[in-house]
């Protein structure tokens, strides 16, 4: 747990340093810097149920929505762990319990926990991609076109996404 906290602090410091050091004083005004999509994604993937990547990218609305979704999945997982893993209960008699078939988790609780944790990780991955993509769009100021269609003749549904490919700037 201590290593996890140290890693989180280091990632946050790197994000802050990158944001501050990239700004420079130019002609009497502070020029805004480009943000890093990798840092936005890394901040979204940190294990706490807060989507720091969206907040870093400046998308406060999405950050609040992703944070609410993460908390909605994180809290029931912690409750299931607390109920079934004897946290804080020093039940030393359980160490010497003679019945080998004894379990603290029922199959329903275990499956529920796996689904909750799977949903939590899915939200984390989606929010990481969203934060990284948001930063890329802010940096490039591009617009993405998309269309959704249904063809009744073929009974098919189509989604198309048009993303312009940007040329690398010459140095």
SSE topology:
Elements: H1 2-21, E1 25-26, E2 29-30, H2 37-45, H3 52-57, H4 60-84, H5 107-140, E3 145-151, E4 156-162
Antiparallel strand pairs: 1-2, 3-4
Helix pairs in contact: 1-2, 2-5, 4-5
Q: Gist?
A:
The chain is mainly alpha-helical.
Description:
- With 171 residues, the protein is mainly alpha-helical.
- It has one domain (2-21, 33-139).
- Helices cover 55% and strands 11% of the residues.
- The protein has five helices and four strands.
- It has helices spanning 2-21, 37-45, 52-57, 60-84, 107-140; strands at residues 25-26, 29-30, 145-151, 156-162.
- The strands form two sheets. The protein has a two-stranded antiparallel sheet. Strands 3-4 form a two-stranded antiparallel ribbon.
- α1 (2-21) packs antiparallel against α2 (37-45), α2 packs antiparallel against α5 and α4 packs antiparallel against α5.
- The longest helix has 34 residues, at 107-140.
- It starts with a helix and ends in a 9-residue tail after the last strand.
- The relative contact order is 0.13.
Task: Please give a handful of descriptors for the protein shown.
171 residues; mainly alpha; two-stranded antiparallel ribbon; 5 helices; flat
The strand order across the widest sheet is 1-2
Count of spatially separate domains: 1
Radius of gyration in whole Å, from Cα? Answer: 23 Å
Query: Number of helical segments?
Result: 5
- Structural class of the secondary elements? mainly alpha
């Amino acid at each position: 747990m201590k290593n996890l906290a140290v890693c989180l602090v280091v990632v946050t410091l790197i994000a802050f340093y990158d944001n501050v050091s990239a700004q420079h004083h130019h002609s009497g005004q502070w020029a805004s810097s480009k943000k890093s999509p990798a840092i936005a994604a890394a901040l979204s993937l940190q294990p706490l149920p807060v989507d720091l990547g969206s907040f870093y990218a400046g998308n406060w609305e999405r950050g609040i929505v992703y944070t609410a979704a993460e908390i909605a999945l994180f809290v029931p997982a912690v409750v299931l762990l607390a109920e079934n893993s004897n946290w804080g209960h020093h039940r030393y008699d359980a160490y010497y319990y003679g019945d080998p078939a004894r379990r603290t988790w029922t199959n329903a609780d275990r499956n529920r926990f796996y689904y909750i944790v799977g949903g939590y990780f899915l939200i984390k991955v989606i929010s990481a991609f969203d934060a990284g993509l948001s930063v890329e769009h802010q940096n490039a100021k591009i617009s993405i076109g998309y269309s959704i269609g249904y063809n009744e003749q073929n009974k098919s549904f189509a989604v198309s996404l048009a993303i312009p490919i940007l040329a690398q700037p010459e140095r």
